[in-house]
Request: fold
Amino acid sequence: MDHDLLFQYIKIGLENITVWPIILIFIIWKLYSNPKYMERIILYIQKIKIGSFELEFREIKEKLATATQKIVELENEVERNDARFGEIVSGVDPYAPLSELAATREALRAVAPSMSDLSAVRAGLRPGASPAELFAAAEVVRTRRDPQFFDDVVACLKRLSADENLEGIRLNTVWSLTSALHKTLVAALKNRSDWPLNERQLIDAKEMLAGLAQHKRVLADRPDAPMKGIRGPIKWANDWIAAGLESMRAASSG
Reply:
């Protein structure tokens, strides 16, 4: 009687438990304990199918190889663009006619998004940078609209506006830099609640723009159409600063 009962239990177990998982676990254990077998299987077997479980070793290997190649190509492109930035800076005349600078601007805009080493860009915004370095840095920052450059741009414009002649920098370069500030504000504040800028940064920028707007060279820029000169991005930047401060203060009080 006991034997019959045991037989019934075994029968029920075999009927309800598939043997494939047990076999699969055994195979995995054997492969784990013999890595060389696993390497040979991956090398020679294209596909294994056990029930609905399918292994496509060669396909996976090929996809990994393709992905690795793409990563290498991307890294090479980034390195080329970093080097290209230096080449552009060394060959640019920031005081050339604007029509001649158009191609240079396009080249800078092309390399800007994928640059990884941004130290040269930051250096171009700091004291001691040449007009060519500042010109190139302004174009890169204007293209990237990256809040990480916000303080550098504000400090650069503050330094220029404190000088009677804007340190001799061309008005068009100052316009590009002010436009970069405006575009960065838009990227940082538009339709966002996780602002990458804080209230203190916006206030500092507002104070800087007030001084820049009163600079004699800025006031003389495009008297026929002031909004097409530096005063245009000054106003637009101020508008975004006002909106940002209002949103931040409302959020802090709420």
Remarks:
- The two ends are 78 Å apart (CA to CA).
- The chain is about 70% helix and 0% strand.
- Residues 2-55 form one domain.
- The first strand starts at residue 48 and ends at 50.
